[in-house]
Amino acid sequence: xxxxxxxxxxxxxxxDKKAIAHNYRVFRKFLGGxxxxxxxxxxxxxxxxxxxxxxxxxxxxVDWLGVDSLVEARSARKAGVTIxxxxxxxxxxxxxxxxxxxGISVTISSFAxxxxxxxxxxxxxxxxxxxxxxxxxxxxxxxxxxxxxxxxILARRGDTSIRGDTFQxxxxxxxxxxxxxxxFIEGLYAHFAEAKNPRAGDSTRRQIAEFKEWIxxxxxxxxxxxxxxxxxxxxxxxxxxxxxxxRIGIGCxxxxxxxxxxHFCGRKISLKPVLSWKAIISEVKEVKMGERVGxxxxxRLVRDSTLAVIPVGYWHGIPxxxxxxxxxxxxxxxxxxxxxxxxxxxxxxxxxxxxxxVGDEVILIGQSGNEEIKASELANFAxxxxxxxxxxxxxxxxxxxx
Length: 402
Hints:
Blueprint: E1 11-15, H1 17-31, E2 36-40, H2 42-47, H3 50-60, E3 64-67, H4 70-78, E4 84-87, H5 96-102, E5 105-108, H6 111-118, E6 127-134, E7 142-143, H7 147-157, E8 160-162, E9 176-179, E10 183-189, H8 201-220, E11 226-228, H9 232-237, E12 245-248, H10 259-265, E13 275-280, E14 283-287, E15 292-293, E16 299-300, E17 305-310, E18 327-330, E19 333-336, E20 346-349, E21 361-368, E22 371-373, H11 375-382, H12 386-391, E23 399-401
Helix pairs in contact: 3-4
């Protein structure tokens, strides 16, 4: 989609709302009607701007949003979001009361956290918690050998059986044991370590099997939480792991969780990247063969060259490892980065692109003519993942949703 270039910005990001809607529909169709859709908008919506992306996902019809922190949850509420929000990361106990009053669900993944939850005073509404269990990834979560101790604590604190519809106005719809307006066990979830790689199926299936043990233990103890485990990769590759809800993160932004997942599923579904990063040319100059360019003179020109300066650098999100290797697109053609990526500037070789002028549009991520630069290309040069590339785009860069 052709988007108008701003006149007062050196660099900006365009976000395509039609592409967002396309990706949403792809996953809704893939899930069918029974599984709930949690859109993960943590880390500033993977660099796409939480304050605009979260309301857009609610408008499209997602059931839940997932954020990293209570601060992000608060920001989403201020942006007008009214649907269920789950804090996936660690919540400081100082924020439990705010979460309880705001109807924000929080993750509890350790006995230390649970002790703090138990210390909450009686209130008008319970704190909604999702118990995170560790099925083999060994990050957050209770381990299976701790299940008996965990369930005994929850049972002692949840000795009052209250119908779920008592809390319908707080998003609770199932019958479960709760601790009288102190906390409510709303969810049970896990996270997979290798689900984005279909060749690692044995490890993922082992995690699924262990998670099913957890589900049975909770049901046998009288709890009926919302059960969820799969992120984008697990959703696409392991339908048996859809359970009550899935957590779609990178897929919402039109990016595949891995090359393997794209190869496995790319013929069945299509995802559209929603983000394009753009800039302008700020200076053009002719430089003679043999001259050296940039900090530490890391590159010597092998021909008379036309060079263009683009006012973005590693402060904005261009990895320094793209020095002498990365590229930009100008008028549908490649312009290679020459010399070092600086904090606020890069220099590109435009010798083979005619009629270059100050103010010309530059594509850093996105399409120009028949050429495209994907976030994964930057990641490959930098020895990292495209998740890091998009989430580390400078949040001060203006974003246009259109």
